[in-house]
Design a protein that fits this description.
The complex is a heterotrimer of chains A (293), B (191) and C (391).
Chain A lengths: L1 H12 L5 E8 L2 E7 L8 E2 L17 H4 L4 E5 L1 H12 L8 E6 L38 E3 L13 H9 L3 H13 L6 H5 L24 H14 L9 H5 L6 H16 L27
Parallel strand pairs in A: 1-4, 4-5, 5-6
Antiparallel strand pairs in A: 1-2, 1-3
Helix pairs in contact in A: 4-9, 5-7, 7-9
Chain B lengths: L13 H8 L13 E6 L3 H10 L8 E6 L7 H9 L4 E6 L10 H19 L6 E5 L5 H18 L3 H4 L15 H5 L8
Parallel strand pairs in B: 1-2, 1-3, 3-4
Helix pairs in contact in B: 2-5
Chain C lengths: L9 E4 H13 L3 E10 L8 H4 L7 E7 L25 E10 L2 E5 L8 E6 L1 H14 L6 H9 E6 L25 E6 L2 E6 L2 H11 L9 H20 L6 H10 L18 H5 L6 E9 L2 E8 L20 H20 L9 H5 L6 H14 L15
Parallel strand pairs in C: 2-6, 6-7, 7-8
Antiparallel strand pairs in C: 1-9, 2-3, 4-5, 4-11, 8-9, 10-11
The chains are: A alpha/beta (293), B alpha/beta (191), C alpha/beta (391).
Chain lengths: 293, 191, 391
């Protein structure tokens, strides 16, 4: 942590960057921090409560951040994938960004007021299980000690997806329409998504209005289905959409399903390599097509 | 939150459906599926035309919407069709390597691969979604695609699950089932 | 304040309450009360006191129209969403239309809502109803809102629990209040002491509740217990946050471009979850949705000032161009604009916005900062306003 504070102080003092985005201690736990003065660098923290994917603040939709100038971003391994996604889609130019990587052994589900110990199988975010990027690559600085593998949660996301797969279509329909009927259409899932970068979202278009804005289950189904679909091959699985959802819709299950489809059908796994093209917008003439008669 | 006899939306009842369907709607009581077909201009639409000029007999439940290319068919079109009362959807265009715009159908194929599997994951029966390549010379194949889609939708019945969504109250006293509940090994009960 | 009232309190046991609710439900009356509606996936963030019960899995509490009395979960913390959805639904149809030949056939909603009863409402949620009444009857009378208000008898429940984001006392509320309600339940041993504060509440007690209420031998001790419970709740909340409402109102109104107010949105994602869960946020959007050919429905839906679309002009210009100024609007509307127009702070201190925000936007902290600035008259730039100046 000292290391991180020192580095941030130096970068700001030397004028290397004008802003460092990391985490700080808030009244209700860890939260994003925006440090513009070297004197404030000691507010920065990093521990297992630093859940937030800060890459979302790199979005071109956030003029209040971009206008602050060149920035350094503290990233976990998983967060780098989102940064890579933005670079891949040319939403970001790498010369305005310095990445400070931190080694991570898994984060909590919530950045709450807990003792920042190592997460256990009860408290670990399910997405951390099987993490392939505990030590972020493609970063300018890499801080912290090597970390152990995150513990396995009682039920993994894949377990839950498999449970749903095992149900009948009618049962799945009941489950999902129940879940979607909770939706209040606040679009928190979209706003916090590091990859939802559209200047105008399809849900905000009114001429024509493709997605009904009323929060009845019909409009909610269209929105939640399209949100997941538009992230096919792009979603990095950071789970921020689910964490931000005020009504607890299990969006991770949808996103994971899409990841599985993309992996199985197009042999594509979202990585931290910005050079590898995304699967939607690309094709192979010999793609599987057994469902097309 | 809404009481049943409070405002009811139009377009959701059998009565309203037959009014919209016009003369070829079935007599009350017998279910006739409504199928929306999104087809490409260059192959399938011409193929359907050929089926017509060849006087092939086929089910009359299909409304065709012609688009320049399968690449123009957004999954939202399918959602919109279901929202507006379709019981099944057909998407059809040129065979691979035959696209008038070189690669439109390849792109569409990837998109529909994901859409179809995701829709199935949400609980939409795959029998309601028909994908096919039909060329301009395949009038008979078009007839088979139509008859197949209609008979599958007939078997599945009206897509009440989707059409009834809008009148489903969004806040009720009912508990939301968890996956564990659905599997029957959870402690929660479901009415 | 409430100690004057206790003379006419009635004692209702848990079992009698269950019987009362079952009787109402059998008679076809809608009964709204906090109920467990599922397991809570993010207990730390959402109304923690509502979710957590020692030794039990975290549960999601919502106000719900009950199917049977056993669903009731009174005595828990704050439900996830406020009560406002029962008066201003997330979406509701205003009119349906259909073309018939050359004519147009219209169907409207019923404005004479059937009478219903809400039990165990949190005082902050009930107070919000009376505050929002003012805007709903300001220029146009909102018949749907008024109809539902008229038809609903609301009993609050003195708060048994609170957490560090509750601050009703700071904005003129109290955890045993009956503002916006018709009466109050106070938990005591074995049941509740019940009192009515309006004619509607008294009518409900006379026609339904009194038959189930008892007059136990130890009623004086129960009344003392209830009074003790209420004053303990008031004491607990008093220490949470103290602000000077009028000073904040005047300072915010006069310092629109102050760096403190124009740097509030740096970490905000603009998701609008805060406005969705807020009991007083009432902005809505009206949309026309076709249901088929030549027919459709006009609906109104909750809207949120936290998205860019809220102020997007047809020309493409957007006067609120970034999250800093959108968040300032939220503060401004609640603590200056509404107080200046209607004499009421548009906030009841429920703290939901703070709990629901996973980015760490914290209204308690923000209000303390503004309060500091307002008391000082002129702000110094605080340690936390390093997020850039221009709005």
């Amino acid at each position: 942590m000292k290391e991180l504070q020192e580095l941030a102080r130096t970068l700001l003092a030397d004028g290397e960057v004008e802003l460092v985005i990391g985490w700080e201690e808030g009244r209700r736990g860890a939260r994003p921090a925006f440090i513009t003065s070297p004197d404030d660098a000691d507010r920065l923290i990093f521990d297992a409560r630093c859940v937030h994917n800060l890459a979302t603040y790199l979005s071109p939709r956030r003029p209040q951040v971009t206008r602050l100038g060149k920035l350094a971003l503290v990233v976990k391994g998983c967060d780098v994938k989102a940064v890579a996604g933005l670079l891949r889609e040319e939403q970001l130019s790498s010369d305005r960004l310095v990445l400070i990587g931190v080694r991570c052994g898994g984060v909590f589900e919530e950045p709450a007021l807990k003792d920042p110990a190592q997460p256990t199988s009860e408290t670990v975010a399910p997405r951390c299980y099987g993490c392939d990027n505990r030590e972020p690559a493609r970063v300018a600085y890499l801080l912290g000690e090597p970390q152990p593998e995150p513990p396995m949660p009682a039920t993994t996301i894949d377990d839950r997806v498999a449970m749903l797969d095992a149900l009948s279509p009618d049962e799945r329909w009941q489950f999902w329409t129940d879940q979607f009927s909770k939706c209040v259409r606040c679009y928190a899932c979209r706003q916090v998504c590091p990859l939802c970068v559209c200047e105008q979202c399809i849900a905000d278009k009114t001429m024509p209005q493709w997605i009904e804005t009323a929060s009845h289950p019909r409009g909610n189904l269209a929105w939640n289905l399209i949100r997941a679909l538009h992230l096919a091959g792009r979603c990095v699985g950071c789970g921020e959409c689910e964490r931000f959802c005020p009504v607890d819709i299990p969006l991770s299950l949808l996103n994971r399903k899409v990841q599985q489809i993309v992996e199985e059908r197009f042999d594509y796994v979202v990585s931290d390599d910005p050079e590898r093209p995304a699967p939607i917008g690309d094709y192979r003439p010999d793609d599987q097509e057994e469902f097309i008669k | 939150m809404k009481t049943p006899d409070e405002l009811r939306t139009y377009g959701a009842t059998a009565d309203d459906r037959s009014a919209i369907d016009g003369p070829d709607a079935s007599p009350a009581g017998k279910f006739e599926p409504r199928i929306t077909a999104f087809v490409c201009n260059w192959c399938t639409y011409t193929g359907a035309d050929l089926a017509g000029t060849s006087r092939l007999h086929m089910a009359t439940n299909v409304r065709i919407i012609r688009l320049p290319c399968t690449g123009r068919i957004d999954p939202l079109f399918i959602i919109k069709a279901f929202e507006r009362g379709a019981d099944g959807v057909i998407v059809s265009g040129c065979h691979p390597a035959d696209c008038h715009y070189t690669s439109g159908n390849y792109h569409a194929r990837r998109r529909f691969t994901v859409f179809r599997e995701l829709a199935v994951f949400l609980g939409i029966d795959p029998g309601r979604l028909t994908f096919s390549w039909v060329s301009a010379s395949e009038g008979a194949k078009w007839r088979d695609v139509v008859d197949g889609a209609v008979s599958r939708a007939r078997e599945l019945g009206p897509f009440e699950g989707y059409h009834g969504l809008v009148d489903r109250p969004s806040l009720t006293g009912e508990s939301f089932a968890t996956i564990e509940d659905l599997l029957g090994d959870g402690s929660g009960e479901r009415s | 304040m409430s100690d004057e009232r206790h003379a006419d309190e009635l004692y209702l046991t848990e079992e009698s309450l269950t019987r009362l609710v079952d009787e109402l439900l059998t008679a076809g009356t809608e009964v709204i009360a906090p109920a467990v509606t599922g397991s809570c996936a993010s207990p730390a963030a959402i109304a923690s006191a509502a979710c957590l019960r020692p030794g039990a899995a975290p549960e999601l509490i919502e106000y719900a129209a009950l199917h049977d009395a056993s669903q009731m979960a009174l005595g828990r913390g704050l439900p996830n969403l406020s009560l406002k959805g029962f008066f201003l639904p997330q979406e509701e149809a205003l009119v349906s239309w259909r073309r018939r030949g050359t004519g147009l056939e219209l169907r409207g909603p019923r404005v004479d809502a059937p009478s219903r009863i809400a039990l165990g409402v949190k005082p902050c949620d009930a107070a919000a109803l009376e505050i929002v009444d003012k805007v709903m009857n300001w220029d146009t009378k909102d018949e749907l809102w008024n109809g539902r208000r008229e038809a609903t008898t609301v009993f609050t429940l003195a708060c048994p629990v609170e957490d560090e984001s509750c601050f009703c006392a700071a904005v003129g509320g109290t955890p045993d209040g009956t503002r916006g309600a018709d009466g109050l339940f106070t938990p005591v041993e074995g049941g509740y002491m019940v009192q009515a504060t309006t004619d509607k509440g008294r009518a409900f007690i006379d026609s339904h509740l009194a038959a189930h209420a008892g007059e136990p031998a130890q009623s004086d001790s129960l009344r003392r217990q209830a009074a003790g419970f209420r004053s303990a709740a008031r004491e607990r909340i008093a220490g949470h946050l103290a602000i000077d409402g009028p000073a904040i109102r005047d300072w915010v109104a006069a310092n629109f471009d102050d760096p403190l107010l124009t740097s509030l949105g740096i970490r905000c994602n603009g998701c609008g979850a805060c406005t969705s869960v807020c009991p007083t946020c009432h902005c809505f959007d009206i949309v026309d949705e076709p249901d088929g050919v030549s027919c459709g429905t006009r609906r109104r839906c909750w809207d949120t000032c936290q998205t860019g679309r809220f102020t997007s002009h047809a020309s493409g210009h957007n006067p609120r161009e970034d999250q800093n100024v959108r968040f300032r609007q939220r503060i401004n509307h609640k603590f200056a604009i509404y107080p200046l127009r209607f004499g009421e702070i548009l906030c009841t201190g429920c703290g939901r916005c703070t709990r629901v925000c996973h980015a760490g936007q914290d209204l308690v902290e923000i209000l303390s900062e503004i309060d500091d600035a307002a008391r000082r008259g002129r702000p110094a730039v605080t340690a936390d306003s390093d997020g850039g100046g221009e709005g």
